[in-house]
Design goal:
This protein is mainly α. The protein is built from six helices and two strands. It has two domains: 58 residues, Multidrug-efflux Transporter Regulator, Chain: A, Domain 2; 54 residues. Strand 1 and strand 2 form a beta hairpin. The radius of gyration is 23 Å and the shape is elongated.
Amino acid sequence: MNIGQAAKISGVNAKLIRHYESIGIIPKASRSEAGYRTYSEADVHILSFVKRSRNMGFSMKEIKKLVSLWRNKTRASSEVKTLALKHIEEMEKKIQELQEMVKTLRHLSKNCHGDHRPDCPILNDLANQ
């Protein structure tokens, strides 16, 4: 199939497909006699895997590793689990940081009069950090 068809089936746009190919996330596409990229069902399956991994917040470096592990049928599942647990830990840290930001902004917003006066604890806090 051509790149447009692969994009439609996988849900990954053509520009990203070319990018993933250039950085080695997916294998180089085969070429038709006319020089156009052609993709197999296996290629589209990898693209869908990559898209799902991105939707779960994995970095491109992590996705490259995951694709490599997925394609290696002799790999130990412990490698995959270790990578996933590390990613969970990073996401939980980000969630905690976001919750702290919300708590701080909620407090500052509560203490801001929101009227015609120029005094604003939100701006004061931002300026002092």
